[in-house]
Amino acid sequence: MMITVLTPSYNRGILLKDIYCSLIKQTFKDFEWIVIDDGSSDSTKDIVESLKEEGKINIVYVKKKNGGKHTALNRGVAIAKGELVLIVDSDDSLPSDSLFNINQQYLEIKNDSSIGGVCGFMAHHNGTIIGTWTYPLSMDVSSIEIRYKYRFKGDMCEVFKTQVLREFPFPEIKDELFCPEDLVLNRISKKYKLRLFDKVIYY
Predict the structure, then answer these.
(1) E-assigned strands of 65-192?
(2) Which pTM does this prediction carry?
(3) How far apart are CA 195 and CA 139, in angstroms?
């Protein structure tokens, strides 16, 4: 089962090497890394092309006209080949067992049409989890329930089925360069739950 790691980037080419280093260390190897260059004027293209030439992982690079992160995400989701999409911002990275743990959880819920993906914890690079969870360590819950029913304070990493993100694309409005991700997350929450599990999958 392939996972798509999706990174939108705008003039942050120099930071992409950190993500790359974390990806080549993944214990789960069936993934692609899509970098959507949202009209950068820096050396993003050259940097990504040099990483591709190393041939260590499957990298897809697309450059588009600057339109904001939400339009870059829409473009990446549209071409994703994985069954899941994990969005990784250009200044972040992944623990080496991140994709392995995501895949293990996904296999349990992949055929459940009521569950739109899986959800793990975020942590600082020193391993400190961002937030506190005092409820059962594995449960099916929506993003809205996590915040407003269970009162979780902190950051979670939602990994959605690709078909779910295609069902709920970010709205694109002419000349508007920003759309909050919570808008789409809340829309998804009204229809789908997530399999929450007790692992750090995102730095």
Answers:
(1) 84-87, 115-122, 131-132, 139-141, 153-154, 156-161
(2) 0.96
(3) 6
